[in-house]
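S1.2 Input.
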Amino acid sequence: MQPFCVARLLVNRNAQMTFNKNILEEIIQGCKAGKNRSQEMLYSMFAGKMLGICARYATDRSEAEDMMQVAFVRMFEKIQDFRGEGSFEGWLKRIMVTTSIGFYRKKLRMLPVVASDEFEDNVKGWDMADSRLNAQELLNLIQKLSPGYRIVFNMYAIEGYSHKEIAKELAISEGTSKSQLARARGILKEQVLQMEGIINERSTK
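S1.3 Output.
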């Protein structure tokens, strides 16, 4: 490809990004003005991604959709607080995560504290990201975790919360957070390896 063509593609891409950003800003302003059409457009733009976030905390799609609906309502109620100082998608994602966590906070019953060291050797050197399973299969395994394990795993391994932050958010001790994470990783490792074994058996037949 000629340099001129590459430069033209970059210009077109940058123009498209600016165009999309301008449209998003217009939609956000419409939402701040209470326009139903703008709210519908904003929902359509982000519903797919946000459902994926909520799904990590939910036990099934129906529950994830409930979480997402509540989060979108809260977002529209708080949209006046968005000043455009950062990514709107990042701001919306935080609302989704906070809502999903809050969804369980009242009914969550954490399992008994287990010393975290007890499970460290079982998961040392193992990374879920290296699994041969696809994203949906991994999500299904995460959804099958008990609520206590699932919420801590998501907050720590995916959202990047520290154990101190998790402890504060869920009103538990850091030791409980660490033990819940260790147990969750141990369960996931066992299930992933079991499923990969089934895949290997099928591939050899």
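S1.4 Remarks. The two ends are 45 Å apart (CA to CA).
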